[in-house]
Amino acid sequence: MNNSTAIAIKIDIDNEGLEYNEVKNFLRNIKKNKKILLNDITIEYEADLWDLSNINPSNIGNSKNRFCFSEIPATYMPLIKDYILINLLEGNKKIQTLYTQFTILRKFASFCYTNNCIDMQSVTIDIISRYIKLYEQFSERYKAHHIQALVDFLLFYNYYVEQIFDDDTISNINDLVDCELVRAEIQNSKTEDVNLDFYNKFLATLIKVVNEKSDKNEIIAMAAMVLIETQTGLRTGELFSLKVGCLKETKILDNQTAYFLEYQTWKRHRNVASSIVKIHANDIVKLAYDTLLGLHSNIQNDTLLYPYKETPVEPSGAIRRLISLFRYFNKYFNTITDEKIEADGIKSFKLQRSGKYVKYISFTQMRVHVCTELYRKGCPLEYIEKFMSHLSAEMTGYYIRPRNTVQENLAESTKILKDIVTKEALPIGPTKGLVEKIDEFIKNNNYNIERDIDEICKKLAERIPIRVKTGGVCIKSSRFRECAKDSATNEFYCAYGVCPNICTFYYMADISYRQAKELVENIECNKSRGCIKQAQKSLNMLNTLLNQKLIPQIGQLKDSINKRGASSVIEKHPNMEYLIINLDSVEKEIEKWRLLTL
Predict the structure, then answer these.
(1) What distance in Å separates the CA atoms of residue 139 and residue 386, rounded to the nearest whole number?
(2) What does the DSSP 8-state code read for residue 121?
(3) Are strands 336-337 and 357-360 parallel, antiparallel or unpaired?
């Protein structure tokens, strides 16, 4: 059957998925008829390029809607095409997410083919390990994206083609990435809140430019768009998709007028779906909106609010315009610097001609700042979730940022300092003379510990930053002192919980004991499966945990019991009850673990 007379197979990509037999029949018909109708757009199944941009009208660039199969080896191409189709049919992934996985599969297929794996039957855990090693210098999170895409593809192959990858193989592939390190990288890569001093100058300048209207219209327009961003925290695509007429008004108490914006979001939907969300608009937003309206020379249906582009500005273009705005604002306040800045809530962009840097605050930081301020002012998370579109309670940790104070948790830091000052519990680990320095501070200031304990701890908390971590605390000798390890090493140590700079106390032994038991179980499991390398990693971690934490903690615990009595220690630290009651058997367990070998 030639393509001109082929019957197109229609896909509604908002489907919730089909049964196995329906999918198999669908694929069979596709290969027979050679055409697919995706939301009324016809795609040639055998074409090297599938352009889905017309069926995926969103605020994302069209490049991520075009699937080019020409570089994929012929033996892998039909499988990857079927994988794309089934995911479109099930509708459980955004097309942009699917495109990211597609690029990974394209690279993987080429790697396999050039290494004599001409089809899926030839693919082994060894070839997958070698492929992942290509990205050894990349972050663990980046490798995790590759692993996720490969595992998803293998499970697709198992289900729809032939089951050749057993559970152990899938598990071993997943083990190629360290989940704890991924979580640590995610935590450490979160977008910083803004630098308030710099941000306030920027906000004042935005209002000045929009109010006075003495700059070029292009500058005024961009300043007005960014002004809306500072008050609403919209995503870049949502901001530049705003249309004329998006500002609405309503009457509230005493017949006062209140305003709100209606904007379109794709973030909380799969594929082509989007929805209209309403968000409060204050007087600053109203000022910016009216200014943008006044810059339009011709207003038609669906006219974008930003007057200098007929289609929404893509995120990469938006950030370029934002940086240019900061560069221009140097005439109002200092935004140009000789040094690169990537800290304290300020970013910088290098100017190629002059070699200088533009200081700026990103759109994401502005969104983080809006969410953070709403949360700090007591705004319920349910409200933030609804009106910021897609911000869920689980994402609170991403959007809500602590202020840059000396202590992240003042109450917990004060409690720890009180234990050290009174010698109720002394830190175990690399204290670098911390106890001696505290004693000297007390002596030099003529403090009486019994009388002045609260004042002592308050003053110490202003000088000694303490970060509470699982099973220990990170204590710096100065609020200005950075971690002695570089950022990559710091991520690694924090992820594994074996940082040599972490201090612990005897009443944290229950956490160390639980971690040790988990490591022992992990060692035995990997050993029984023949994963000796993974078992050795866990054994190394176990030895570090025992020597640096658990054994010294048990020693101090016994000292504390001898001084205060078991019941007194349990009363103050009820989490230690099990260890205290079973102290003899716990010590025998620890000795057994200490002698453990592979």
Answers:
(1) 33
(2) G
(3) antiparallel
Strands of the sheet containing 357-360, edge to edge, are 336-337, 357-360, 347-350
pTM: 0.55
Instruction: Average the pLDDT over each of 128-142, 291-305, 419-433 and give the range with the smallest value.
Output: 419-433
Structure tokens at 127: 């070839």
pLDDT score at 115: 93
Find tokens 């370029």 and name the residue. Answer: 320
Give the Cα separation of 311 and 301 in Å (integer). 13
CB 201 within 8 Å of CB 191: no
Q: How far apart are CA 447 and CA 441, in angstroms?
A: 9
- Angle between the 217-232 and 196-212 helix axes, to the nearest 10 degrees? 130
> For residues 209 and 211, what is the distance between their CA atoms, to the nearest angstrom?
6
Backbone angles phi, psi at 430, to 5 degrees: -80, 75
Half-sphere exposure of 67 (CA within 13 A, CB side): 29
Contact 275, 237 (CB under 8 A): no
Contact 391, 385 (CB under 8 A): yes
Residue indicated by tokens 């017309």: 54
- Over residues 388-401, the pLDDT tens digits come to 765 554 455 555 55
Contact 326, 313 (CB under 8 A): no
pLDDT surpasses 70 at 531: yes
When computed from its CA atoms, the radius of gyration of the chain, rounded to whole angstroms, is 30
